[in-house]
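Re: the pair you flagged

First of the two:
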Amino acid sequence: MEKHPFTCSISQLAKALDITTRTIRFYEEKGLITPDRTPGNQRIYTRKNRARLKLILRGKRFGFSLDEIAEMIGMADTDLTEIDQIQKSLVFGDKKLEQIRQRRQELDLLEEEILATRQTLITRIEQLKEKE
């Protein structure tokens, strides 16, 4: 087993990242992280595992799917170069930005429609009150 200056248990890592141990196991099952194992088969997490988990959590926070995150950071058994990771992240980031821009346009249109309807209703109330 390769020696790392920093290792921790699954519970220590979960606490450090404010996530559950189940979440960490889930990402392991998906092949996104691969912890080392002790002779007793306990998971031991390295700085690299922690860094990958932080990237996964950031990707989720930004709305990326696990498949997109896996492609951006490379699967646990694939060594992408940093350039490859950055290029993939840029492609996915650009797609996400376009989705956000499209949603923003749709929301702007919806807001305009709601405001127009609101004004129509206010005007109608005023007309009805004048007739009383």
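Second of the two:
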Amino acid sequence: MLFHIYLSVITASLSFTITETKIFAPLRQWLKSRSTFFGELFSCGYCLGHWIALVLVLIFKPRLFDIWWVFDYFCAVLIIAWIAGFQWVVMCLLIRLAGK
């Protein structure tokens, strides 16, 4: 389970960096001009976190249960994305408190 926490930290960090930082603002604007779906996806840290969690689960294949692997990976993606969502909110609050 500790590995899932590590993956959630990576997920939160990546989703925050892509959706909130100035360096990725041109990419977000370009995506919004090209596609409504991708424009919204890359502007929502919680939404993007699910896709990042999916990629990380497919790469690292963490196991939660000894059951059917598809269900196991599905649960892992949801748990990682959910924990990352909390971490993402904390990072947003800290940035706003810092005045950035």
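The helical segments are 2-20, 25-34, 36-41, 45-60, 69-97.

-B.
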